[in-house]
Specification:
This protein is an alpha/beta fold. The chain is about 45% helix and about 15% strand. The protein has helices spanning about 20-30, 40-45, 50-60, 65-80, 90-100, 115-120, 145-155, 170-180, 190-195, 210-219, and strands at about 5-10, 15, 85, 105-110, 130-135, 160-165, 180-185, 200-205. The strands form 2 sheets. The protein has a 6-stranded parallel beta sheet with strand order 5-4-1-6-7-8, sandwiched between helices.
């Protein structure tokens, strides 16, 4: 496993933001007078573009209704999201190991750029990320490959030199659409069996296992 550019999804891949996301959705549902929904229904939308997640949770196809929900959700996220988000064990160490090889590191996520940057700043590790492309940085969101292709172009990389790592079938589809290698992590809601149906170089149980794979290359 030897790449020059390592790109990652964020939620459920590098960080566990599940408690914060679930909390913010429950608060917003109550605030707007919607019936509450089970936690599992919310969890299955993590990683989707926010408007799409809202539509699935609320049960609407109306863009205006979903946008109204997002507007009400945003102040709750400002309050709870970053404090309620934690790096998975070994995530920071894995990013450090990648940077030590001289490779570049980026994040391509359906979360906003600001929210991702905030987490790295709060944990005092902004130097581990060379580029963030969030939902507000592109017009077309995953599984459209726009973000991945922009990162590849930004670093002037050949696609053979790029690895995208994610926890969702959405990430697998994004990598396939971009024509880059994909590494699956099963810390999200997508099973290894589902990932097996997509092109992949490996299916790992957690992000920390990637650090072990990198160590093998040095042996």
């Amino acid at each position: 496993m030897d790449y020059r550019l390592y790109l990652f999804d964020f939620d459920y891949t590098l960080v566990n933001s599940e408690p914060a996301i679930v909390k913010c959705f429950h608060i917003t549902l109550q605030k707007l007078g919607y019936p509450d929904v089970p936690d599992e229904r919310i969890k299955k939308t993590i990683g989707l573009p926010m408007v799409e997640a809202v539509k699935r949770i609320v049960g609407t196809a109306d863009d205006a209704e979903a946008e109204r929900f997002v507007d009400a959700y945003r102040p709750e996220a400002d309050r709870y999201m970053t404090p309620g988000t934690t790096f998975f064990p070994g995530a920071v160490e894995t990013l450090r190991a990648i940077k030590a090889t001289g490779a570049k590191v980026g994040i391509i996520s359906n979360k906003t750029h600001r929210r991702i940057q905030e987490k790295f700043d709060v944990d005092h590790v902004p130097e581990l990320i060379d580029l963030i492309i969030g939902s507000n940085d592109v017009k077309s969101h995953k599984p459209e490959p726009t973000g991945l292709l922009r990162a590849i172009d930004h670093f002037h990389m050949a696609k053979d030199d790029v690895l995208y790592t994610g926890d969702s079938y959405i990430d697998a589809e994004t990598a396939r659409n971009a024509g880059v290698d994909f590494l699956a992590i099963t810390t999200g809601t997508t099973s290894a069996e589902t990932f097996a149906r997509y092109p992949h170089i490996a299916i790992l149980p957690a992000i920390a296992a990637l650090k072990d794979e990198l160590a093998k290359n040095r042996e």
